[in-house]
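Appendix B. Raw example, untouched.
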Amino acid sequence: MTRIAIFTLFLFSLWTPARAIDFDLRLDRLAEALGLLPEDDRKSVDEIIQFIKRGENTDAFNRLNDLNKTNPSNSSLRVLTSYALLQLGNAIGALEEAGKAHEAPNGNSYKCLFYAKIAFLNGKLDACKRELGHVRKVGDMPKEVKALEKEMKGKS
């Protein structure tokens, strides 16, 4: 084996994908928007959640892509898609989907907190701060806001 090939293998062994990031998904906060889906789609979401819990994020992402085509404005589907992408190591794609969730007409303050976390992971501190301001105004997730603010201070 050549030195370049050995060095390349060594570099790949050190690489840590984005899925290594500890990132909790709050399914309870997604229930309201998921309840807006047709019954068959809700059954699909139940299966997708099981994929996610088992770490089968490629399968979850593929199924979510199909559901997003028929339900493009469901914030919770977009949050789930973002989460699956993050677990697959695609932080940029996760940010795009979190942005779509944020722009969706349904959902709650969790979609802003979720977007803030993904923005933070992507180094978009202004967006993170803006979204934390939205969550702070609602006032239903003060511990989560403080935790992310503390994490931001640790990185600055």
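End of appendix B.
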